[in-house]
Amino acid sequence: MVPSPLALLLALAATALAEPLRFVDCGSKDGSIQEVNVSPCPTQPCLLHKGTSYSINVTFASKIESKGSKAKVYGEMVHVDVPFPIPEPDGCKSGIQCPIQKGHSYSYLNKLPVKGEYPSIKLIVKWELLDDQDQMLFCWKIPVQITS
Q1: Dihedral through CA 96, CA 102, CA 23, CA 36, nearest 10?
Q2: 68 in Cβ contact with 135 (< 8 Å)
Q3: Whole-number Å distance between alpha carbons of 32 and 136
Q4: Under a CB-based contact definition with an 8 Å cutoff, are residues 28 and 36 in contact?
Q5: pLDDT tens for residues 10-33?
Q6: Contact between residue 123 and residue 99 where contact means Cβ atoms under 8 Å apart
Q7: CATH says 24-146 is which class?
Q8: What is the predicted pLDDT for the residue at 25?
Q9: Is 60 exposed, middle or buried (0-12, 13-18, 19+ CB in 10 A)?
Q10: Where would you find this protein in the cell (predicted)?
Q11: Closest CA to 136 of 63, 77, 83, 76
């Protein structure tokens, strides 16, 4: 039996609700982002529940050589970046084999812990990965809502 166009459309829609996310590139200079995944985040804005940790997976290609990399994460509220601590800022300990080589693709893996004391608000998560010259390998933003 051939699946109906409606069944195919529903299957595609269900797949689209999972990752990868729509994101805004906010200045990737030394790399190009291929995909951003936040898990679990079936819809946007991502609902981030207090006391939960979220998996981040960014696939990117490097345009440069770099001995290392360092992540910086911010919560952006009314165009002000508030630093957001992450457990492991060193990209070389987050799935990336260093030194980073030009033309290679990498999967950057990290965790985004949402602490219980965070306020319940809507904001933009901004995630940067800097190379050894403090230039952006990648920078992406997604809308989130922190909730209880």
Answers
A1: -30
A2: no
A3: 10
A4: no
A5: 333 333 444 578 999 999 999 999
A6: no
A7: mainly beta
A8: 97
A9: buried
A10: Secreted
A11: 63
Q: Tell me which residue of 17, 20, 12, 11 sits closest to 58, measured CA to CA.
A: 20
Q: Per-residue pLDDT tens for 70-110?
A: 999 999 988 899 998 899 999 999 999 999 999 999 999 99
Residue 59 CA to residue 85 CA, distance in Å, equals 21
Amino acid (one-letter) located at 102: K
Write out the two tokens for 110.
């990290």
As a whole number of angstroms, the distance between CA 62 and CA 16 comes to 27
Residue 21, CB-side half-sphere exposure with 13 Å CA sphere: 25
Share of the chain above pLDDT 70, in %: 87
